[in-house]
Design brief:
Blueprint lengths: L7 H13 L2 H7 L4 H15 L4 E4 L2 E4 L1 H32 L1 E7 H6 L1 H11 L4 E7 L1 H9 L5 E4 L8 E15 L14 H6 L3 E3 L4 H10 L10 E3 L2 H9 L5 E4 H9 L4 E3 L8 E9 L6 H12 L9
Helix pairs in contact: 1-2, 1-3, 1-4, 2-3, 6-12
Length: about 300
């Protein structure tokens, strides 16, 4: 920034001299002493390299150059005022808007209740909700397009802070006529790993949880079908495409109505997971995000029943 940029307070004083016709009256307008006002004007002249005032025993008046500079000063002050008002408006809009990202399971089953509770305490708050998989929520936080996120993945990157807001379990589900629906012994990890499944897309918290659980058994086999939304996966599983692995919250209605059956898995297979709120480390949470987080922690996601 150039070192000869004028002080805005000095420009205001210069305009006041032009309007009052007197340096002392201009000083009185800003509740400063006449010597302080004179010193401020001399500093401005020095910085600009232009003589602005003619000082006489009868007072001070603007030089011809001072008149020109005063006109310019009015434009600078108007722009500065517009700058202050504009940033205040931006701040007001930001304070009245909350940008939330949530992975599909959390967005569908938990976030609506949290937002309804938030609306009761902050009725004028506008909440923008972006629904995607856990990986994209994390990207949104890193690119500052989200204030807070809710994810399902087992691993939280080190550049994010997190807190648990709920718990969930993945279930292996099949149609009632599938051979697995009638087996008495739990499906072992090795068999599940070797089976082509109906799965969420890579990057989703559901997929990452399953991949982590099956890593000791050689990882996930090539899927029968990959989809980036829960409803089509439920439909595919219910139509008999093959076994699917989905959140217990997502399939609770299908289980209750008999469209799908939950298949037990061996105890060593870790399909439990935590649902977490995340936000960038080193960045303060907006007040509205902190309020939403408090509501989420007071109304945690309950783990649905299931094997």
């Amino acid at each position: 920034m150039p070192s000869d940029l004028p002080d805005l307070h000095a420009l205001e004083l210069l305009v006041a001299v032009a309007e009052t016709g007197s340096l002392s009256q201009a000083a009185a307008r800003f509740a400063i002493s006449q010597p302080s006002a004179s010193a401020r004007m001399m500093t401005l002249e020095r910085r600009l390299g232009v003589k602005l005032l003619l000082r006489t025993t009868r007072g001070s008046r603007l030089t011809p150059a001072g008149l020109v500079v005063t006109d310019w000063a009015r434009g600078v002050l108007e722009s500065a005022a517009a700058f202050v008002e504009g940033t205040a408006a931006l701040r007001s809009r930001q304070e009245g808007r909350l940008r939330v990202g949530a992975s599909l399971t959390v967005a569908e089953h938990l976030v609506p209740g949290w937002l309804l509770a938030l609306r009761e305490s902050a009725p004028h708050l506008h909440v923008g909700l972006e629904v995607s998989n856990s990986r994209k929520v994390i990207e949104g936080l890193r690119h500052d397009t989200l204030d807070v996120g809710f994810v399902e993945g087992p691993c939280i990157p080190r550049d994010l802070r997190s807190t648990v807001v709920g718990r969930d379990r993945l279930l292996v589900v099949v149609t009632p006529d599938h051979p697995w629906a009638h087996r008495s012994d739990p499906v072992p990890g090795g068999e599940l790993a070797a089976t082509a499944l109906v799965l969420r897309e890579p990057g989703s918290g559901t997929r990452e949880t399953l991949e982590t659980a099956l890593e000791p058994y050689g990882g996930v086999a090539t899927p029968l079908l990959e989809l980036g939304a829960i409803a089509p996966l439920r439909s595919a599983a219910a139509s008999g495409v093959g076994p699917a692995v989905l959140s217990a919250m997502a399939v609770q209605d299908d289980l209750a109505e008999g469209r799908l059956v939950s298949v037990p898995t061996e105890a060593e297979l870790r399909l439990d997971r935590v649902l977490q709120a995340v936000w960038p480390r080193g960045r303060s949470l907006p007040a509205q995000a902190s309020q939403l987080l408090a509501l989420a922690c007071r109304r945690p996601g309950r783990r649905p029943s299931g094997s």
